[in-house]
Design a protein that fits this description.
Structural class: alpha/beta
Shape: globular
Order of helices and strands: EHEHHEHEHHEEEEHHHHHHHHHHHHH
CATH class of the largest domain: Mainly Alpha
CATH superfamily of the largest domain: Dehydroquinate synthase-like - alpha domain
Radius of gyration: 20 Å
Number of domains: 2
Distance between the termini: 51 Å
CATH topology of the largest domain: Dehydroquinate synthase-like, alpha domain
Number of helices: 19
């Protein structure tokens, strides 16, 4: 159930009464809970409830922290889990929900979560407009620097609260990267091998919210614009919940984990490459839609418009901006690709083909 027309306090109070919860696990960001205004909104709201609170680190959840947390909390009785923060906080809450009462499975093999039940329903309250994690059944976790996806219908949040006031304190660059992540998710969802008519419709709805508002969300973030971005990110999340992401996300994780590039910026760094590769795989309706929305007459103009958007937003343009210059660096980068996400990219390309395509693209630009 999605709450998008009430403030967070009224929405959460209704959910708590509806679920008749008594024991609450509250998962927040270390700083965002205060900065976003959530702490004020929660003041007094959870009195009368037994509340246990944990805080994420602000980056993607790490295996060791999750292991420590589920070990510490596994004897608690939990009726509802409230995840209040950005995508990494919501992901953390999802993984804890799945393994809180299944910690031995987590220690033994966290990649095999078939048959596991979540500890309690999840209420997701995003404080960024980007990941759409409040609308997806998967979460990202890192172990020894390697990214792992955990997917289960058990961790799809039962409730999402979309309150634009909670994004009003976002620093401009955070808003930029979050918004660009949602834009890229929606575009990728249009060409994904796993796409359906439903996911493509959500992707188009997302882009109709996001593209007219993303620049204003950074420069002039009024309530209307911030709500449009939240709704756009939510629909992008709904789209990838079905279709999953593709090539640009497959190559983004190295840029984030090894080069320190924020996730949304990292994904966008390779979008032009994949627009070039994937445009022909889009159905005619999706091609026409993207050209109309970006005001582009063909694929090459669409690529130019996307690059111009990144310039307007002050984002890095390509992987050379991450310090990847020579062929050895390129090989290390491309062979680090997330194969699961790459397999969802149309055309059955492999890292070697990507490397050659990138080299040819560079030659054309010289």
């Amino acid at each position: 159930m999605v709450y998008a027309d009430k403030n967070v306090k009224d929405s959460l109070q209704e959910i708590l009464e509806l679920t008749n919860a008594g024991n609450v696990l509250l998962v927040t960001g270390k700083q965002s809970f205060q900065i976003s205004g959530l702490a004020r909104a929660f003041d007094g709201l959870l009195s009368g409830y037994k509340v246990n609170k944990i805080s994420g680190s602000g980056i993607s959840p790490e295996y060791d922290y999750i292991a420590e947390t589920v070990n510490k909390l596994s004897n608690l009785e939990i009726d509802i889990i409230i995840a209040a923060g950005g995508g990494s906080v919501i992901d953390l809450a999802k993984i804890i929900a799945l393994y809180l009462y299944n910690k031995q499975s987590f220690y033994a093999d966290f990649t095999d979560h078939s048959g596991l039940k979540a500890a309690a329903p999840i209420v997701a309250i995003p404080t960024t407009a980007g990941s759409g994690s409040e609308a997806t059944h998967f979460a990202v976790m890192y172990k020894d620097g390697q990214k792992h996806s955990i997917a289960s219908q058990e961790i799809l949040p039962s409730y999402a609260i979309l309150d634009p006031d909670l994004t009003s304190s976002l620093p401009p660059f955070t808003a930029t990267c979050s918004g660009m992540d949602a834009v890229c998710q929606a575009i990728e969802s249009l060409w994904a091998n796993n796409a359906t008519e439903e996911s493509r419709q959500d992707a188009k709805t997302a882009l109709e919210y996001l593209l007219p508002n993303i620049i204003a969300s950074v420069n002039q973030p009024g309530t209307f614009v911030r709500k449009q971005m939240l709704l756009g990110a939510h629909h992008a999340g709904r789209a990838i919940n079905i279709s999953k992401t593709t090539g640009p996300h497959a190559l983004s994780y190295y840029l984030t984990s090894k080069c320190g590039i924020p996730h949304g910026e990292a994904v966008a760094m390779n979008m032009e490459l994949f627009i070039d590769i994937n445009f022909e795989f889009l159905c005619q309706d999706s091609q026409t839609f993207l050209k109309r929305l970006f005001k582009a007459e063909d694929k090459y103009a669409l690529i130019d418009r996307f690059t111009e958007l990144k310039i307007h937003l002050g984002l890095k343009q390509g992987i050379s901006d991450a310090g990847i210059y020579d062929e050895a660096d390129l090989k290390q980068f491309f062979y680090s690709v997330n194969t699961e996400r790459l397999a969802n990219n149309p055309g059955n390309i492999d890292p070697g083909q990507l490397l050659n395509h990138y080299k040819n693209t560079i030659k054309k630009q010289e």
